[in-house]
Structures are given as C-alpha cells and as structure tokens.
Amino acid sequence: MPAAKTSPYLADLERDGFVVVRSIVSKEKLEALREASLKVEKLARSGGWPHIRTVGKQFPPWEFNPEKGIWGVQHLMNPSLPGSDLYADLYFSEEVLSIVRELLQCDDENLVMELFNMLVRPDGDFELRWHRDDIPASATAEEEMDRLGRPAFHAQYNFALWEDESLVLVPGSHKRARTETERNADPLEKVLPGQLIVKLEAGDIAFYNNNILHRGVYDSTKDRMTLHGSVGHSGGSKLRATNVLQHGIGAWVDKIDFSALKDGERQRGEAMRARLVKMGSESGPVGYSLQG
After folding, report:
1. Residue of 40, 141, 155, 210 with fewest CB within 10 Å of its CB?
2. What is the residue extent of each domain of the chain?
3. Is the distance from CB of 238 to CB of 285 less than 8 angstroms?
C-alpha cells in the first residue's frame, strides 16, 4: 500500500463514520444516468426485471414479488439490464475510484469489484430497522468491538441522482459498541441520541462505514433514485465474501462488457472483476450476513 497521505475525506470518515463529497460528475453524465434510471425503475416496477428489493424485507435474499412494491433494483452492471454500460462507466470511473483509493489508502492494484444497486421510492412508506451491515443485533458489546476493531477493507457509498434524505445514522458509532439506550431501543426507533440525517443533493456521494449504526427511512411521496455501491480492497477477501456474494453477483459477473470504457478504466475494471472472481473461488459457500 502507498504511504499514508493527509486526506480530509479519510479524516472525516474515520472520525464520523461517513463523509459527503459534493457534485462529483458533470451535468451531462448526471442527466444520462437519470434518464437510464427512470427506465430501469419503470422496468422493475412492472415486473420486467427479476432482481429487486421487495418492500417488507430488509436483507437478502429477496423473492421476485413486485406486487408487494419495491424499494431497490439489484445488479445494475448485469449486461442483461438496459443501461448497464452507463452504470459500469460510473462504477469504474475515476470520479468514484479516486475517492475510494483515498479512503482505502491504496492503489488500483488493490481494488476489488463488489456491488452496484439502486435504491428507489417505495409505493408506501417503508423503514429499515437500526442495524450494522454485518454485525447482528444479538451481538454482545465484546463481539461488536471485535468486528469493529478490524479494517473495513471496502468503501460503501450512496450516489444521489435526485435529492436524498433517506440515510439516518449515528456519527461515531462505527468505533464503539452500542450504548444501553441504543441496545434497548425499538428496532424502528424514530430518534436515537445524536442521530443525523445525511442530506444529499443531486450528484453528491456519501461514503460510510457499513458497520456504523444506521437505518433507511423511505418516504413514498418523494421520488428517489440513489445508486448504492461498494468497492473492496484485496486485503479483505474472506472478510468481505459473505457481504458481497450473498447478493448473487457471481451468476453474471463473467458476462460484463467493458468495451465501452476508456482504455485505462477498461483494464482497471477487468482486473477488479478478476479479483472478485478470485474471492469467490477461494471463499467457498457463503450464507447471509443478517436475517429479516
């Protein structure tokens, strides 16, 4: 890994557990992504795309049941999805990966392809319970600190195509076990002490530690299209395997077409995919991080 550099983004992430970077893409690129995403959302709501997050279920696996309503669209880079080339172009872009390298303090050679999905407005109000992405609510304080004490080995983000105020988190909770108040709170508690609503404008991106205490609150009266992605570090192969492979990405990852990417980004994307495939081959069978 390269020598550590002074990075305000990394300092914010380490201190608070999240960092917001404003307006990372051009207006033209944002508009193209909006146009493609409107079509993808319509396709998913009509039952034309089987990989969806259904209302009422927070964690994978999700069944194809669009009549229940959806709150997300999975596998944006699957070449069977119209517009997948635009999503791949963003995912493997320097606009995103330059920030990822800064946060992970690494070079391109360490980056691993992970997930890219879209979170959308549900047909009815829907809330996720308070959680950490790969630490169960039943964990003791000692178990929480054991996991929180290890490197994250990934960068997870929300990239807003329109205004978004859906992510609610407790700054600093990525570095400590839950307080008694947090541990005893209702899973859908409206307000926890110190909580913050992450407010994004169109084109903003929020990176956050996925083991920060957080939840999603989705207002059915507000349009939402937010691209939800993660990029891994090769040092975290086994640690990340369940988090990534539980989403079923292995079924199509070999079919991604990188031909539309610029030369440097194409080679980088192919190498990142190869590291994902290697992770899958070494991990063996994986289950699911959380239930519900």
Report:
1. 141
2. 8-281
3. no
Question: Which of 134-138's residues contact partners 24+ apart within 8 Å by CB, and which partners?
Answer: 134/210, 134/211, 134/242, 134/243, 134/289, 134/290, 135/211, 136/290, 136/291, 137/187
**Are the C-beta atoms of residues 25 and 203 closer than 8 Å to each other?**
yes
Residues in contact with 90: Cβ distance below 8 Å, sequence separation at least 6, in sequence order: 25, 29, 33, 96, 159, 227
Tokens coding 134: 């790969």
The highest-confidence range among 68-77, 123-132, 156-165, by mean pLDDT, is 156-165
pLDDT tens-digit series, residues 213-269: 999 999 999 999 999 999 999 987 666 766 676 656 777 888 898 988 998 999 999
Residue 238: the pLDDT is 65
Residue 73's identity, in one-letter code, is: V
- Inter-residue contact 156 to 208 (CB < 8 Å): yes
Q: What is the DSSP letter of 212?
A: S
CATH of 8-281, one of 1.10.443.10, 3.50.30.10, 3.40.630.10, 2.60.120.620: 2.60.120.620
Contact 158, 225 (CB under 8 A): no
At 112 the three-state DSSP class reads strand
Share of the chain above pLDDT 70, in %: 90
- Give the pLDDT score at 286: 44
